TrEMBL record:
Family: Belongs to the bacterial ribosomal protein bL33 family.
PANTHER family for this protein: 50S RIBOSOMAL PROTEIN L33, CHLOROPLASTIC (PTHR43168), LARGE RIBOSOMAL SUBUNIT PROTEIN BL33C (PTHR43168:SF2)
Locations listed in the record: Plastid, Chloroplast
InterPro entries: Ribosomal_bL33, Ribosomal_bL33_CS, Ribosomal_bL33_sf, Ribosomal_zn-bd
Protein name as catalogued: Large ribosomal subunit protein bL33c
Organism encoding this protein: Edgeworthia chrysantha
Protein keywords: Chloroplast, Plastid, Ribonucleoprotein, Ribosomal protein
GO MF assignments: structural constituent of ribosome
Superkingdom of this protein's organism: Eukaryota
Cellular-component GO terms for this entry: chloroplast; ribonucleoprotein complex; ribosome
Biological processes annotated in GO: translation
PROSITE patterns in the cross-refs: RIBOSOMAL_L33 (PS00582)
């Protein structure tokens, strides 16, 4: 069967400050969240402020490719 073009798609949000700085010696990884977005309402890439447990603060998390 052909893959359907669903309106709601699953996306991954990744911390932009962890990626920008590389992985610091104190941090053990990169923070990622999985969520959904509506393709018709938000066709562009999604950016949200979420808590990063590796940076210990709220940072901007941007949508990445799967």
């Amino acid at each position: 069967m052909a893959k359907s073009k669903d309106v709601r798609v699953t996306i991954i949000l990744e911390c932009t400050s962890c990626v920008r700085n590389g992985i610091n010696k104190e941090s053990t990884g990169i923070s990622r969240y999985i969520t959904q977005k509506n393709r018709h309402n938000t066709p562009s890439r999604l950016e949200l402020r979420k808590f990063c447990p590796y940076c210990y603060k709220h940072t901007t998390h941007g949508e990445i490719k799967k």
